[in-house]
């Protein structure tokens, strides 16, 4: 058999030698702009994300090693060491996710963030690492305690949320910040010293990473996509200038792992490893012969989507993802082979059946895509791989926890998807009390007498969001507010507004003031207001009392309210009032409401004021603001209305009934609502650690918090209502010291509730104060009872043991233990066990309390199914009602659903109760609140890819719906391929194909750059990192490159010799290499004015590393109050810009920032690859309430975020400045733009400043422009703006650029730029543009030139003369967007940018709308945003204008001609005699700067110019 095979290879080889085509790969890489960060530090940040304790455990483990062990010979051995020590603190799944995060370099920004902080701290030069103690620095371990002495009085160092603070309670006033690199010499000594000082409570120890000698290479990134789109060649847009010394370096790779033209090269390589070189040649030939594109007939296009799916499904299961990736990413080259694929009817039928489920469950149409991770929707337009990794990390704990409890496969999945919401009712507080007196009565007050007055009227239909005006007291709104606190004052004003505007709500105010009955009202404004309010409501009316309070606020005008203000105003308005009776310290006649309020608040358990209740149900805290309060009240009324309607409809609620009494008798109404119970738990115990049965708390080795918790749970003994073993859904642990009255009271409250509840069982955790001298009789007796007695006897005896009178009798000797004997118990055996009982249990429980709960001795609290409620404050009561509420909340929110699932699985008794406790704790820690979708009813026999997971390990469930020939498939397929290598994952991919296609569904090649793990060279060093690599590309098609980074990245090209906008491989020698850099990470935000709720349009923010030195600024849009700023890793400070923004406004609030506690500076940390989205509230200063931001006077100079000219211009004087805006992509348009610039400069005496959109400029243009600026004496700035994620995205590069021309004019330029002129890159100017700049726009925000109508042969192409455009324009001109002037002040003042974006958002949803986006949009908006029509001679274009009109043309544009399709350069040479002189002049300068000879390649006879003068203004080193 061997001979024929070898002969075949000889024939193949002979064929290849004749026809071999050399591969020309296109490679793309993206680097960060900061040095590569150490992997060890990145791993520590991953671990810190899991737990602060695990971080310090990891640091301890690694720092204990000798430095030469950590800094091993190779990167690969260092990587193994990281995994080894990470494995000691992380689960196996988390180790795998950590490796993936290291491959992504996810935590590199976090390390660089700390590095920048250390740079700001200014490390001592002689130190490799150092400690800063409240700003005092040292790197000498022996001097630390001396420095502490001198630093103690200095302001303490700010601690951020992302800082690593050593656990424990150190000295909070002295912060010792250690800047060092883990694993380096000297680290351990400093670390151990600071640990010791922290334990001694001398310092708070903070560790920040600091790399003394950063890497010489930058961080290589992945997690982005690269596309090569096939470019239309209708109009030639390619510069034919040859690339000189391109320096392209494309590493060859042995890629023999794919399928080409039916040859499975992975299999062939496996069968014939010795023929590897020949196989590679064969593959290259097949690619070169198959990759050229051929047009398909229309009938061949129709079923391409189904045929692609069929080809994928025909592949072997292990190869299906690979085939899907190849088809989707190389679709244009695969179409010919797809046409031949035979579609099976059963596949198509099953797909069509599934489409009904896609529509109903996911709202997907044919061809649309979706991805679910454990049922959670992963929006591919929004999610990047970093966000996906975060989601996987949050799911990992839940999956591993359930798996450790013995659940696998379908059972595990059921718990993951368990609906914890159910039909839960919100708990309400009984509001029947003398403290709650209502201001109005809808049933009896005259103002409501004309309203319908039957409860039946609540059934009337109404518009959504509208309240039904019924004269019945149905909705009762009770405010618990402090009348002197600013936030509460706004709520009180809202109450008055509800009353004045006759809202169908009954209102009550309860003033939460100083409840000390001995306080003098003349010394406390809140008490004075309470007394005055009580007086007026008794002697006059409630509405007048409320009006008096709000009048006080008007008089105060925002200043602090004083008792004098109250007494003075009362005397003025009610002169007959006896002031000594109202405000007398000894008088209580008008103190009725305050005394009642004190009683009600103590009994009700309400805290954390202000609180507002609607029919007893507390409004959520986020609704208790001026902006959201009305929305919160209306939404709560809407939520409660259906229950009331149902009661009326079913005849349970009648007109003769007292509705308040009816509402307060419902099951969900309680006499006490403890705010602590209703607040989400701040801590949840982890029960998922698996321990050996032999492990006890007596074991010598140090145990983790998880192990201690697991042992405590295993050894816990419980009390329950009845003796028989049943499934109990709520497990309570009472943590207390039974030697104290407070501890006994808490345990007694829990036992009293136990006697009435079938849903709870009770365990005790003893938290004894070791300092107190006591015989510990009560602790020992309670513990012994729990351990030795049966349930009923133990419950009765413990109840007696914690009763206060019994304890006092035992201590005084009046009673002995046997006097507390319970009927039926064996007292002798109990006493014997009690005598033998040691205090070891107290030590064990103390270990749990310190390590797992983190509480101090004698702290009290309750743990319900792992949710920690406490520690309670010193005098805080936790009553039987509170225990009842806690049990009900836990049962309703989580435990009930789990109990139901347990019963379905047949799990009963103590084991079931234990599992409910542990599962409830796990499920409560779920971080994702997104509803989990369930795809039930789908068929997967014929039309789905099924890749099962390993059943013996926890597995992610990934469900995907996609069209195999879509842009979503291009990204999803490689992502799933990598995830399968990273973690255990069960994958199902359902095909959702489109039929009757009429055009190519995908017109690009695509690579998603993602690796499952780091890769190393044979010598153990790291490879250069991931790249996007395209090999099987057509050579005769022009391709345009685009990088699709995560939404938060701003990426720029930094090295690319070739024109990335026009890649033609047949003209390339060895391939194309492009290097990009992550220039910035985005900070986004939304800003609003607190007084109006509206965005403060034109407000400017600044951002800087130092509060006093801002580096970048931005402007707030009216659309959503949106703003964006750009930054790199580090801590940045946000502020209002000096000038009008800061003069008029101040920042009144902020959310989602990194501001340290107590700091007035707004800090924002860039410490991840994800964008920050901030919420900023501002308010006008009191003396600026009538001022407007956008006014006519000159604003002060801006510091706009841009890259400025390399030479510093003089300060701008009153000289005229021409601001010219333009954009270009591709070498040819950049060539044309340079010529445009020269034509502008040669026709004006004015100072010129060019503004270029940076997003698409080539590295060569960005490098050359500073030299050109110096030579010709102009200024320039490169501006950029990331397309906001909320604004409908464009997919094609050309349309994106059109969008940038019109959509962001108000925010691209600083406020001091009054006018801007846009000039197309392919334009030549023949006049002074200062004339256009000075032109009166007659009140319009911008001026455009109308399209010429003088070239009659083009009438058939003038679409605006008929149909929609003709009727819409109504006689107005249709304008061309090649040249326009914008009055930016007027543009901003009338919110033109916001209007344009709003109209764009609506129109762009239709793919057939806005075909010429930059032109169609302003013309479509001509009635809302007026256009000044410029004189026709401002723009001449041969396509539309007659030859006669050319002689008066002020600018000439090289418009595309749909008749002739003439290339730009050819048209330029023919139409513009001066063009070649400009072009040649620029080429001479280029050649002098770069020592090239491009001027020898020109397409024309070189003009006669003095080349010696060109470049004369440049320095020698610039040439």
Describe the structure.
The two termini are 67 Å apart. The strands form eleven sheets. Strands 1, 7, 28, 30, 31, 34, 36 and 38 form an eight-stranded mixed beta sheet that branches. An eight-stranded mixed beta sheet has the order 39-42-41-40-43-46-45-47, with helices on both faces. With 1519 residues, it is α+β, with helices and mostly antiparallel strands. Mean pLDDT is 88; it is low at 1-5, 7-21, 247-254 and 1193-1213. Helices cover 37% and strands 16% of the residues. Helix 2 packs parallel to helix 5 (75-86). The longest helix has 26 residues, at 880-905.
Structure summary:
The chain is α+β, with helices and mostly antiparallel strands and 1519 residues long. The chain is globular, with a radius of gyration of 38 Å.
pLDDT under 50 segments (min length 5)? Answer: 1-5, 7-21, 247-254, 1193-1213
| Category by helix and strand content | alpha+beta
What's the shape? Answer: globular
How many separate helices?
49
How would you state the average pLDDT, rounded?
88
Major β-sheet, in short?
A: 8 strands, mixed
Strand segment tally: 49
The proportion of residues forming helix, as a percent range, comes to 25-40%
What is the alpha-carbon Rg in Å?
38 Å
Percent in strands: 15-25%
Distance between the termini: 67 Å
Question: Key terms for this structure?
Answer:
1519 residues, alpha+beta, single chain, 49 helices
List the helices and strands and how they pair.
Layout: H1 2-19, E1 26-35, H2 39-50, H3 52-63, H4 67-70, H5 75-86, H6 92-104, H7 108-121, E2 130-133, E3 136-138, H8 144-151, E4 164-165, E5 175-180, H9 187-199, E6 204-209, E7 218-220, E8 224-230, E9 259-260, E10 263-264, H10 265-271, H11 276-290, H12 298-301, H13 304-314, H14 320-329, H15 331-339, H16 345-362, E11 370-373, E12 376-377, H17 385-404, H18 409-416, E13 428-429, E14 476-481, H19 486-500, E15 506-511, H20 525-539, H21 542-556, H22 563-573, H23 579-583, H24 592-604, E16 611-614, E17 617-618, H25 629-649, H26 659-664, E18 669-670, H27 675-678, H28 705-715, E19 719-720, E20 730-736, H29 741-754, E21 760-766, H30 777-788, H31 791-801, H32 804-812, H33 827-836, H34 840-853, E22 861-864, E23 867-869, H35 880-905, H36 909-924, E24 944-947, E25 956-962, H37 967-982, E26 985-991, E27 1004-1009, E28 1028-1030, E29 1039-1044, E30 1049-1055, E31 1072-1089, E32 1100-1104, E33 1112-1115, E34 1122-1127, E35 1130-1136, H38 1140-1144, E36 1145-1151, E37 1162-1166, E38 1172-1180, E39 1203-1204, E40 1217-1222, H39 1227-1241, E41 1247-1253, ...
Parallel strand pairs: 1-31, 5-6, 13-18, 14-15, 20-21, 25-26, 31-38, 40-41, 40-43, 41-42, 45-47, 48-49
Antiparallel strand pairs: 1-7, 1-28, 2-3, 2-5, 4-6, 8-27, 8-29, 9-10, 11-12, 11-25, 14-16, 16-17, 19-21, 20-22, 22-23, 24-26, 30-31, 31-34, 32-33, 32-35, 35-37, 36-38, 39-42, 43-46, 44-49, 45-46
Helix pairs in contact: 1-11, 2-3, 2-5, 2-6, 6-17, 13-14, 14-37, 19-21, 20-21, 20-22, 21-22, 28-34, 29-35, 30-31, 35-36, 39-49, 41-47
